[in-house]
Amino acid sequence: MLKPDDIQIRHRDLNWLSFNNRVLQEAEDPATPLYERLKFLAIFSMNLDEYFRVRVSQLRQMKRVEKSIRKKLALRPNQTVKEILREVKKQQEKFGKVYREEIIPLLEEKNIFLVHYDQYNDEQKEFAKKYFYKISSCIKPVVVESEKDGDLFLENNTLYLYVTFKGQDDFGIVNIPVEECGRFIYFSSETKEHKITFLDDIIKARISEVFKGREVDGMYEIKLSRDAELYIDDDLDGILAEKIYDSLEQRSEGQPTRLLYDSNMPQKDKKIIRKTLKLGKIDMMPGGRYHNFSDFFSFPDPTNNPELHYENLPPVKHKILEKSQDYFKEILKKDISVHFPYMAFDYVERFLQQAAVDKEVKDIKMSIYRIADESVVTSALLTALKNGKNVTVFIEAKARFDEKNNIDWGRKFEEEGAKVIYSYPKIKVHSKILLINRQEDGEIKSYAYIGTGNFNSKTSKIYCDHAIFTAQEKITTELSRVFEVLEGELIIPRSKHLLISPFSTRKAFTDMINRETENALLGKKAGITAKMNSLEDKEIIELLYKASNAGVKIRLLVRGFTCLIPGVENLSENIYMTSIVDRFLEHGRIYIFENEGDEEIYFGSADWMSRNLDRRIEVIAPIYDPEIAREFKDILDIQLKDNVKARIQDETESNQFVQRLPDEKPIRSQYEIYQYLKKKHSV
């Protein structure tokens, strides 16, 4: 039996695989429309690529850290990587089975056929020949002498064919130029059957022309995952991160983390490519005939059959903002909430557009974590600059994989006269905040937008997020101090209402959890309900275990990984946790504390992760408007009652779906929330 002081913490990287398995469950689910099942396979594949590029790479770097530091951090990188690879192999096998035995036959039932090069008929062979000549300038074959190890460089997450030649020791490598040519090619057909082939197969069909004068013996697809940067400081505290950096030698850019290869590749060729790329056996991951399933996001549907896709959900029209020509006037009356993707991101864009042309607006300040390419947001900011507004934009230069795009936009804003501030060396800005200062009756009136999601119209269509527009002075004054910190004018922002990381968020959450614990021990009403993306912070977990043992009922909704183990006797038996993976990506954070019946409700950008509490600029806001508080509670309550797409998170990590009783109504929360908002905002 576990004792209360035996703090049980899961390894985040191992539990993340449990999350990705939930994504794979959606691809397995026959109730999911066929093309959406394909997209979940694509999401699974994309997630895994990033996981190896970042998390597994970091674990491997840890192997080079001094033993004394590894011991202090309780790091066991070798053992963890082995466990990861075992689980990934199992998931990859399930992935392949779903694709081959379920998806492909179902596509064929709908008269959609994926044709491999060895199945081409004469007409398709002729088509492949013409198409090959059309793209031949993009194909860059090389022949590698196998004994010259290290001469070969493969780009990160790029598809290649490893080609063997009869009677020869050397081998060929040919790129599959997906970025330039697309992955899927549609064969024109006059029949009801729709034939589609991979770009890979077009090249395979003409491989003799790629390597002229050689007799090809075998072709096997490979893909190498590399890391472009070491992301240690984002997950470990500053002092230890410095020690880790000091103990690491300067490594070469783009360290290989995984070679995915066709499992039909002969053993001798696996050995050759492994040695050529200077990989260890642990770096080798068997896969199927094709890789980069993230390309299935763009898989064509020549049938245009709506049954193969999710039903269309037109955005809910906000009863106030939809008809308003003056957002400032409406926000001044009362706080206004919006919820994506149930509502359109247009409301945020319109707010910025109004501010850009409003003669009374003096300042626009916002933090941007991931900038979309050309967008209404960027256009509005440029318009504001042309109209003489003071525009201050804080750009997170270290937003993983979006670094270049963010910096490029920062330069554009600077060229047009904006004050652009980039991220600090040891801290990220993850808050989603906007502040507009407007001249009204001889005074400056401030308007704020605080959200859980990025200022990105594209992701707003698939990420479930919440936001509030407010002109409450107690909120806007403190938000202004956050921007003063970002601009270097203030070191520590005083705050009574906002929780601001890394200054006050941890203490505030600690105090509120301790208060619930004390109330439970005194027999008072106590409870904690929280929704977030990930739960990792050890101090918070220990506090939650302590609260559970005191009798506090804790209900958690965590989409991604969790290091807390719920439902363990004498440790966390009063903690119940579920996770929802469905059509949209759950991204919002909501925190509710019972407080003896006088509930306190917060929302914002921070998870209960050490990096969000201690090493990022985050803003968590209280919800003071009673109507909006009720709305947030209703939405969260619907999600807590989900019995269609919710999985139970427990000690077993089995991802069992919540079971509903025979007479219980099915509740698929994302659709229920849509209907709830639609009803509330009907005019």
UniProtKB/TrEMBL annotation:
Positions of ATP binding: N47, Y463, R559, H587
Gene3D superfamilies noted in UniProt: Endonuclease Chain A, Polyphosphate kinase middle domain, Polyphosphate kinase N-terminal domain
Cofactor: Mg(2+)
Catalysed reactions, semicolon-separated: [phosphate](n) + ATP = [phosphate](n+1) + ADP
Keywords of this entry: ATP-binding, Kinase, Magnesium, Metal-binding, Nucleotide-binding, Phosphoprotein, Transferase
Superkingdom, taxonomy of origin: Bacteria
Record: residues binding Mg(2+): R370, R400
Active site annotation, chain numbering: H430
Coiled coil (UniProt feature): none
The enzyme's E.C. designation: 2.7.4.1
Post-translational modification: An intermediate of this reaction is the autophosphorylated ppk in which a phosphate is covalently linked to a histidine residue through a N-P bond.
CDD domains xrefs: PLDc_EcPPK1_C1_like, PLDc_EcPPK1_C2_like
GO MF annotation terms: polyphosphate kinase activity
Pfam families per UniProt: PP_kinase, PP_kinase_C, PP_kinase_C_1, PP_kinase_N
Every PLD phosphodiesterase domain range: 425-459, 582-612
Task of the protein: Catalyzes the reversible transfer of the terminal phosphate of ATP to form a long-chain polyphosphate (polyP).
Family: Belongs to the polyphosphate kinase 1 (PPK1) family.
PANTHER family reported in the protein's UniProt record: POLYPHOSPHATE KINASE (PTHR30218)
NCBIfam families: poly_P_kin, PRK05443.1-1
Name listed for the protein in its UniProt record: Polyphosphate kinase
Gene expressing this chain: ppk1
